[in-house]
Amino acid sequence: MAAIITAKNISKLYGEEPNLVKAVDDISLEIKKGEFVAIIGSSGSGKSTLMHILGCLDKPTRGQYKLEGRPVSQLSDNELADIRNKKIGFVFQFFNLLPRTSALKNVELPLLYAGVNKKERDSRSMKVLKELGLEKRLNSTSSQLSGGEQQRVAIARALINNPSVIFADEPTGNIDSKSSLEIMKIFQRLNKKGNTIILITHDKEVADFAKRIITIKDGKILADKIKK
Ligand SMILES: Nc1ncnc2c1ncn2[C@@H]1O[C@H](COP(=O)(O)OP(=O)(O)O)[C@@H](O)[C@H]1O
Ligand SMILES: [Mg+2]
C-alpha cells in the first residue's frame, strides 16, 4: 500500500537554551493507506505536537514531512489550510463543534468551504450522519446532544470530504466509558471500510483498538508494534 505519511527526522523545538523544549525530537515515521495507528504516551510526551505536524496544523522546526508523497514542510499557511480541508479529517477531545448550530450545519461546513452546492451538501451530510446513527438528531444543536453524540457529529464532519487520513486526538477523553466504547467501535468500523486512522491517546485500553501502536516518550519513538 502507498505511504500516506512519510516523516523524516522531524523535530519541533520550543524556546531557547537553557529552557529549550524538544516537544518532538528527531522522529522518522511511515504510515500507509488503510492503517489504524495509535500514538500512545503520557501527558507531555509530544503526542499533540506530533499530530499537529502530521495533520498540517503546524510545521516542524527541522526535518522533512510528506503527505501522500508531497513535501508539505515548506508550504505557506494558505496552502496548508487547503490541504487540510481536502485531505484531512480531525476529531478532537472537546469536539470543536459550533455551538447553537445544528448537527447538519456543523457537518456541512467543510463542504461549504469546498464550494459544494446546498443540495449536495444536504444529501451528503444526511447520509454520513445517518451512518453514524444520528438521523433523528440532524436539527439538534451541540448543546442538545450528549458528549458521545457530539463526538459522532464531529466524526461525521471529519468524514464528509472523504479525507485521505483521519486524526483523532484523545477522542474519548471527555465522554463516559460506554460512549467511549461506541466511539472506538466506530473508528474500527471506518478502518475496516478502508479509512486510514491515526489515534492519539494516553489510554492503553483505547490504543488497543488500533492495529499498530507507536509509543512516544520525551518526543521520541520508544516502540512501534504491529498487532498480530
Ligand atoms: N506552544 C508551546 N510552547 C512551548 N512548549 C510547548 C508548546 N506546546 C507544547 N509544548 C511542550 O511540548 C511538550 C509536548 O507537549 P504536547 O505535544 O502537548 O504533549 P502531549 O499531547 O503528549 O500531552 C510538553 O513539554 C509541552 O509543555
Ligand atoms: Mg495532547
Question: How would you describe what is shown here?
Answer:
GO terms for molecular function: ATP binding; ATP hydrolysis activity; transmembrane transporter activity. One of its GO terms (cellular component) is membrane protein complex. Keywords: ATP-binding, Nucleotide-binding, Transport. Belongs to the ABC transporter superfamily. Residues 5-226 form the ABC transporter domain. The strands form two sheets. This protein has a six-stranded mixed sheet with strand order 6-7-8-3-9-10, with helices on both faces. It has a four-stranded antiparallel sheet with strand order 2-1-4-5, covered by helices on one side. It has a single domain, classed as 3-Layer(aba) Sandwich (Rossmann fold), CATH 3.40.50.300. It has 228 residues and is an alpha/beta fold. The protein has helices at 47-54, 77-87, 103-113, 118-131, 147-159, 177-192, 204-207; strands spanning 3-14, 21-32, 36-40, 62-67, 70-71, 88-92, 165-169, 197-201, 212-217, 220-226. The model has no long low-confidence stretch (mean pLDDT 96). A hairpin with a 2-residue loop joins strand 9 (212-217) and strand 10. The longest helix is centred in the C-terminal third of the chain and has 16 residues, at 177-192. The protein starts with a strand and ends with a strand. The protein has seven helices and ten strands. The radius of gyration is 17 Å and the shape is globular. Helix 3 packs across helix 4 (118-131), helix 3 runs parallel beside helix 5 (147-159) and helix 5 runs parallel beside helix 6. Residues 14, 21, 23, 41, 43-49 line the site of adenosine-5'-diphosphate.
